[in-house]
């Protein structure tokens, strides 16, 4: 992720190297030529070397400060004037230092925009002086030649400066893009770090939600199988105890208790393995409902009529299991609370929904007054949670003395569809 930052640093290093290498090479060549042409005295040689060394140090310093001074007119102008002064001194000492004049053109961009043309012209005039052989060769007869050289140098340097200016602008644009990419990468790294933390948080929440959902599922399954089965077993055993004087009735109640215990054990095992109810393994939903209602009627002595409307078609196991468990819970509530004389169960296949309606003519109750029971009553809560898990709705209609209707509506998800 540090590519743009590394690219910016590499670009700046190359720029500093170019701004330092070209002037140093040209200055070295000019110094060698100057010493070859003029080495008349040790003092003059020392002067040349001293000026050349000072100019080399000045150029090195400017190369390293170039980026900082580019947008600071005063330091850039002063450093350029200092460079031009050193070049002038070198040319006055020996015209061969005209080869080092290129430094003046390179660093003209340190000047404010309005002063760059005068800076280039001043540098071109210095180059013309070196080309004519020194300041002493500019006389009344030769000055037109010097002016001509100045003009040519100025035009050539102007063209060079123009293209260099275009390159400089492109360089600035690239640097700006690299800086933007570097900033974007920093923000991206921060976003990735935040996303990693958020992902970890979401995974933790998903695990907690999964655990909570499984606990609710198991609670509902335990209520629908073990709790109801044990309640039925207790009821039958109590009835058998009360029928001690009637051996036939006593044995019938004991047989019913054994059957309920076996069925509850089977359903509990299937619930642990998250399997559909046994009744739906052996029959379609309407037949399973009819069988459930028939056994309930036999156990409690209350007639239960099952009616199916619409075109029967296989539904997703979750949908059918939800409807069967809801019917079982509704019938269990009728047996425990309603004191009903008859029950009607209606299963309706309609377009995109399947509905279940369980009605009784019992005592009824006021649904809005029902509160969670201290003994852990779970019936209505279990039904609502179970139906909502398959995106369905559950409604309870009841009034004291007017019976109760439990109405469940779930999506008609065909068998074989994804869960």
UniProtKB/TrEMBL annotation:
One of its GO terms (molecular function) is metal ion binding. Its EC number is 2.7.13.3. SMART domains: HATPase_c. Residues 323-414 form the Histidine kinase domain. Residues 174-208 form a coiled coil. The chain crosses the membrane at residues 17-37, 44-64, 84-108, 120-139, 145-165. It is found in: Cytoplasm. One of its GO terms (cellular component) is membrane. PROSITE patterns: HIS_KIN (PS50109). It catalyses: ATP + protein L-histidine = ADP + protein N-phospho-L-histidine. The keyword Electron transport does not apply. Gene3D superfamilies: 1.20.5.1930, Histidine kinase-like ATPase, C-terminal domain. Keywords: 4Fe-4S, Coiled coil, Cytoplasm, Iron, Iron-sulfur, Kinase, Membrane, Metal-binding, Transferase, Transmembrane, Transmembrane helix, Two-component regulatory system. The keyword Hydrolase does not apply. Its cofactor is [4Fe-4S] cluster. Member of the two-component regulatory system NreB/NreC involved in the control of dissimilatory nitrate/nitrite reduction in response to oxygen. NreB functions as a direct oxygen sensor histidine kinase which is autophosphorylated, in the absence of oxygen, probably at the conserved histidine residue, and transfers its phosphate group probably to a conserved aspartate residue of NreC. NreB/NreC activates the expression of the nitrate (narGHJI) and nitrite (nir) reductase operons, as well as the putative nitrate transporter gene narT. This is Oxygen sensor histidine kinase NreB. It comes from Actinomadura namibiensis.
């Amino acid at each position: 992720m540090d590519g743009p930052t590394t690219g910016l640093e590499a670009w700046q290093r190359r720029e500093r190297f170019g701004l330092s290498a070209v002037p140093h090479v040209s200055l070295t060549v000019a110094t060698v030529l100057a010493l070859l042409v003029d080495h008349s005295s040790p003092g003059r040689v020392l002067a040349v070397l001293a000026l050349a060394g000072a100019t080399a140090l000045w150029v090195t310093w400017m190369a390293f400060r170039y980026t900082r001074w580019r947008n600071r007119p005063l330091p850039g102008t002063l450093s350029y004037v200092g460079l031009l002064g050193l070049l002038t001194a070198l040319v006055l000492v020996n015209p061969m230092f005209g080869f080092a004049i290129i430094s003046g053109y390179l660093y003209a961009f340190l000047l404010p925009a309005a002063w760059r043309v005068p800076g280039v012209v001043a540098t071109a005039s210095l180059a013309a002086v070196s080309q004519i052989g020194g300041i002493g060769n500019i006389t009344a007869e030769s000055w037109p030649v010097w002016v001509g050289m100045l003009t040519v140098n100025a035009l050539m340097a102007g063209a060079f400066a123009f293209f260099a200016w275009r390159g400089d602008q492109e360089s600035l644009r690239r640097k700006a893009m690299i800086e933007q990419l570097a900033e974007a990468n920093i923000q991206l790294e921060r976003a990735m770090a935040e996303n990693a933390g958020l992902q970890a948080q979401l995974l933790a929440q998903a695990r907690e939600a999964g655990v909570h959902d499984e606990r609710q599922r198991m609670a509902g399954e335990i209520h629908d199988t073990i709790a109801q089965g044990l309640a039925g077993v207790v009821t039958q055993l109590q009835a058998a105890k009360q029928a001690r004087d009637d051996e036939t009735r006593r044995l019938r109640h004991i047989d019913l208790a054994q059957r309920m215990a076996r069925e509850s054990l089977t359903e509990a095992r299937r619930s642990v393995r998250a399997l559909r109810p046994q009744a739906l393994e052996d029959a379609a939903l309407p037949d399973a409902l009819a069988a459930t209602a028939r056994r309930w009627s036999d156990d409690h002595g209350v007639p239960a009529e099952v009616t199916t409307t619409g075109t029967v078609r296989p539904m997703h196991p979750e949908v059918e299991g939800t409807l069967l468990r809801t019917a079982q819970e509704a019938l269990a509530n009728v047996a425990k609370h309603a004191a009903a004389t008859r029950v009607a169960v209606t299963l309706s296949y309609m377009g995109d929904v399947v509905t279940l309606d369980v009605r009784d003519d019992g005592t009824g109750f006021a649904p809005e007054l029902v509160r969670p029971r201290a003994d852990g009553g779970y019936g209505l809560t279990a039904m609502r949670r179970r139906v909502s898990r398959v995106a369905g709705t559950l409604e309870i209609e009841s009034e004291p003395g007017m019976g109760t209707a439990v109405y469940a509506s779930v999506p008609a998800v065909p068998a074989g569809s994804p869960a």
